[in-house]
Each structure stands twice: as C-alpha cells, then as structure tokens.
Write a structure and sequence with these properties.
Blueprint lengths: L7 H18 L6 E2 L7 H5 L31 H11 L6 E4 L3 H15 L7 H6 L5 E6 L3 H9 L3 E8 L2 E2 L1 H10 L3 E6 L13 H9 L8 E5 L17 H7 L6 E6 L11 E4 L2 H11 L8 H11 L2 H30 L6 E2 L8 E4 L5 H10 L2 E2 L17 E4 L6 H25 L1
Parallel strand pairs: 1-12, 3-4, 3-6, 6-7, 7-8
Antiparallel strand pairs: 2-9, 4-5, 8-9, 10-11, 11-13
Helix pairs in contact: 1-14, 4-6, 12-14, 13-14
The protein binds pyridoxal-5'-phosphate.
Length: 428
C-alpha cells in the first residue's frame, strides 16, 4: 500500500517496525561499499592475459615502429582501428593515449582555455576580462565532469536529463542566447548515472542547433559505448558524421577508453573529432608528450584482436555484472515497490542505477546507511556543485562488491529509504 494512503497509526506502526529492522543492521558490522563504479576483481581477471603481453617477441607495431621508443603521438594504428570500428569513427580521426580519458577531457578543455579551439579565441581571455565561461550539465550526471569544469573556472548550468535524453528545448534556448555557454557534457550511451541513451534524433538536434558561441563544443564522453546489459546491443550514433552533415564538423570532442573493458587503471583512452580537431589536439599534445605508452597499446591490440574480440569480452563482463543489476532491481521492487516512495532506473547498460527517494530525504538515507555500514556516494553528487535541489537522488554502483554483498547492501538501503520517508511523513 502506498505510504500516502496509510493512516497516522499505520505510519507509526511501520516506523516502529522499520526502526527495529534498521537497528538490527548495526550489530551485523557491515562494511559494504556501493560508491564508485569500479569493475570487480572477477571482471579484471578476464583481462589477465594482458599481464603477459606483449612479451619480448613483440617490440614493433604493425607499421614497424619500435613501441619501446619515443614517438607515435597519435597512438598505434591497430588499436585505433579496433576502437574506431566500435565507436563508428575512422581510425585517422582517433587518437589513442594513455590510461585515462578523464585526462584527455582535462587536456582538451585546458587547451581550449589557454590556446583556443578551432573557431574560437582562448576561453581564458574571456575569463581575464571578468567573464564566466559556462557549461551545460545534463543532470543527474557524472560528478567528475562537474568537478573538472568547476576547477577550470566554468559555471555549471544544470539541465534535466531523462532516460531518453536531455531537455532539448532548454538546451537550444540557452545555447542560442548566451555566447559564454561554450560546451555541453554528454554521456551518450548508458549515461552515468541514469542510463540515458541519446538517440540519433536527439544527437542531430545537438549537432545542428544554432549556438551563440562559434566554438560551442559537445563533450561527447562515450565511456559506456559497448557496456551492454541486454541482448539489444545498441550501435553508437555516428555523431561526427551527423555533425559534418549539419555543417558543424568541428563541434564535437569524442572521448572513450578501455577502462571498463580491460583494466580500469591501465587501459587505453581515446580522443576523436574532425580532421581539424585532431590536428589541433595533436599540435597541442606535442608540447605535452613525445608519445603515449605504446607498449600498453600494443598489448591491448594483441589481446583484443578486433572489434568482435571486444564485444566477446564485454559479454563475459555482462555475465558477471548483470546478476548484480538484477538483484538491485528485484530487491528495490520487492521492498519499496508497493509504498510508492522511490523510483529507480533499470538501465540497459553501463555501470549505475539511479535511485530517486522521497524528496528531501536522500542525505538522510545516505547518513542512515553509513551508520549501518553501507557506504553510498554523497547525496547530490550527480548534480552540479553537489546540490540536488530536491535532495532525492542517490547513485548506486553495484559492479564492484560480490553479489551476496550487493544483495545485503540493497536490502539495508531499502530499509533506510523507507525509514527516512516514514520519519519525514510523520513529522509533516
Ligand atoms: C561517464 C564517465 N566518463 C569517464 C570515466 C572515467 O574514464 P577513464 O577511466 O577513461 O578516465 C567514468 C568513470 O566512471 C565515467 O563514468
């Protein structure tokens, strides 16, 4: 029965029952962590063959370049080909780099800030005049995108993101009006945290919309392009093709990595864009490094072999993590469904479930869970400046703990969600 239908006496009885259940959690001495979207050890083990590669017999790449030496700024052709096939981007429009796409996001934005990106002056010049560069942030979103933008002095402008895409009307209006809005963050496939997928239609609107800034940039972070949780393995949208068609070929910066394909701490990252954007990035990159870790790129090419090799590996990941997502969805439905106090996403891929609890209780839920030994990301962390105006969103990352721990943690979390909701209702 919905909480809203309970009489005061029924609410008090439920409160008592939940308090008892909650107090029972504490002595169990739980140490459960649902905070960060990390692959589990079992997932990392799938790529252990990498640890023995490339081996002393493999010291040159397909082009005959010695991978142990300096050079090869754009990265190995063979690894760019594999990820180009997966992302639907020609290999010559991709750069392969070291282990973190977040570093490429940092570098590309810093280059735009200091040197200007094609089509625009250095953003820092505007900042020096006292202007504030702004970036549109579909929310809920990835906290590190927001932290990076904030660290560079950008103002974060939240825009609603639903599971089928962002609030396009607001985005179009803001981008058309304000020349200081220079960028938008987009996680197009299985977004962190709500699993949103951007369709070709939504993408076409974003690449073709008029913008007041000539150097407006779509920061297209396709971190979860191949991270399917169902048989419906959606194909990546040809964002660069659509941008070229819309006569804004230079509008998009593409980011991706193998962090959640092979090793999160030792994968290969990628930057994609038009030929102009790639040349611009390489020109700036050449002052920062003489070349990437090509040995790591070669070992990845040898291990993954081709795009189908990656797809096969991702199905093995899915076999490990899909039961964890299923457990979260089953327990939330079982414990919370009838009370109508919470909503959660049932993502078709990616690494997260986004849980909306009763308004103005998320911080309390996180506090209650922490006291019971269940660590959650701070409430509001999926919102710019960590401020969720309704204090209702909690990001659940179920991949890292073993399945049994996921079950215990979500059951405990459900108790906290209900307890916080009932307590608030009683106080009203
Ligand atoms: C949307 C998104 N982008 C990027 C990253 C980090 O990528 P990388 O490991 O390549 O730096 C994450 C990690 O959680 C993420 O969720």
């Amino acid at each position: 029965m919905s909480l809203a239908d309970l009489s005061p006496a029924e609410l008090s009885a439920l409160h008592e029952e939940l308090t008892t259940r909650y107090e029972e959690l504490k002595p169990a001495g739980l140490k459960l962590d649902l905070t960060r979207g990390k692959p589990s050890a079992e997932q990392l083990d799938l790529s252990n063959e990498l640890l023995g590669l490339p081996g002393p017999d493999h010291t040159v790449d397909a082009a005959g370049v010695d991978v142990r030496n300096y050079g090869g700024l754009q990265g190995l052709q063979e690894i760019r080909q594999i990820f180009g096939d997966l992302l639907g981007i020609p290999a010559d429009q991709l750069i392969a780099a070291d282990n973190s796409s977040l570093s490429i996001m940092h570098d590309s934005l810093t280059f735009a800030l200091l040197h200007g990106r094609p089509g625009g002056a250095p953003w820092a010049r505007l900042q020096a005049r006292g202007e504030t560069i702004k970036v549109l942030c579909p929310t809920p979103g990835y906290d590190r995108h927001f932290m990076l933008s904030e660290a560079l002095g950008f103002e974060l402008i939240p825009v609603d993101l639903d599971v089928d895409g962002p609030d396009l009307d607001t985005i179009k209006k803001l981008a058309a009006e304000d020349p200081l809005i220079k960028a938008i963050w987009v996680v197009p496939t299985y977004a962190n945290p709500n699993g949103a997928v951007y369709s070709s239609e939504v993408t076409r609107e974003l690449v073709s919309m008029p913008t007041a800034a000539d150097d407006f940039t779509i920061l297209w972070d396709n971190a979860y392009a191949v991270h399917h949780l169902t048989d419906d393995e959606i194909k990546p949208v040809d964002v660069l093709g659509l941008a070229a068609e819309a006569r804004h070929p230079d509008r998009v910066f593409v980011y991706a990595s193998s962090s959640k394909i092979t090793f999160a701490g030792a994968g290969v990252s990628f930057f994609g864009g038009s030929k102009t954007i790639i040349d611009w990035y390489l020109a700036n990159l050449s002052k920062r490094t003489i070349g990437p870790d090509k040995i790591n790129q070669l070992r990845h090419a040898l291990f993954l072999k081709d795009a189908d090799g990656v797809r096969a590996l991702m199905r093995r990941h899915r076999a490990i993590i899909e039961p964890k997502f299923a457990a979260v969805e089953e327990i939330l439905a079982d414990r919370l469904g009838s009370y109508e106090v919470a909503r959660w996403t049932e993502p078709q891929g990616g690494y997260f479930i986004s849980l909306d609890v009763a308004e103005h209780t998320a911080a309390e839920v996180v506090r209650l869970a922490k006291e019971a030994g269940i660590a959650l990301t701070p409430a509001g962390s999926a919102y710019p400046y960590g401020k969720d105006p309704a204090d209702k969103n909690i990001r659940i990352a179920p991949t890292f703990p073993p399945l049994a721990q996921v079950r215990t943690a979500i059951d405990g979390l459900a108790t906290c969600v209900l307890l916080a909701a009932v307590t608030r209702r009683l106080a009203q």
